């Protein structure tokens, strides 16, 4: 994706107030991020580990989501596969919950998805980062097909949040 500036990112949030978007933690090293290899930029708030954010470009404009990472309830089975990039992780993936955009979000509605803990889906899909696990099954998809699947899954998630 094309490199984004802090200002573009802050004004791209779909599911939080303008005030929150102004205050939330945006990485300081935006210029050093591997934008060419990213379908979306995702990050955790270093001061608040239960907060995560992601920004992507859809329909020609940046769109960003604020996410919460609630501690898993004891009865929840730990999932190991990211729902966005379908990468397997030994330490599990993190449930991230996005408040819905607009009124639905104000009424407490949210949408959850299981995501790579470090939100580095783009790098796993491209083989730029690995989980230390042998693939559980051999996938015959090309990197381009995996990238398309990842961006499709992400777009579907954004659609659910804004629906
Ligand atoms: Zn992932």
Automatic annotation (TrEMBL):
Top-rank taxon, per record: Bacteria
A Pfam entry, by short name: FBP_C
Residue ranges of every copy of the Elongation factor G-binding protein C-terminal treble-clef zinc-finger domain listed in the record: 8-161
Protein name as annotated: FBP domain-containing protein
Taxonomic source organism: Streptomyces spirodelae
């Amino acid at each position: 994706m094309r490199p984004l500036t802090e200002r573009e990112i802050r004004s791209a949030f779909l599911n939080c107030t303008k005030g929150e978007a102004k205050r939330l933690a945006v990485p300081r090293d935006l210029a050093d991020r591997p934008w060419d290899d990213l379908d979306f930029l995702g990050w955790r708030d270093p001061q608040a580990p239960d907060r995560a954010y992601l920004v992507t470009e859809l329909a020609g404009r940046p769109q960003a989501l604020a996410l919460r990472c609630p501690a898993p309830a004891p009865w929840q089975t730990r999932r190991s596969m990211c729902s966005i990039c379908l990468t397997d992780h030994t330490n599990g993936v993190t449930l991230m919950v996005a408040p819905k955009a607009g009124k639905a979000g104000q009424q407490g509605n949210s949408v959850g998805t299981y995501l790579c803990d470090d939100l580095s889906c783009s790098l796993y899909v491209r083989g730029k980062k690995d989980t230390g696990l042998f693939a559980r099954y051999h996938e015959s998809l090309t990197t381009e097909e995996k990238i398309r699947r990842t961006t499709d899954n992400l777009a579907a998630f954004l659609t659910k949040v804004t629906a």
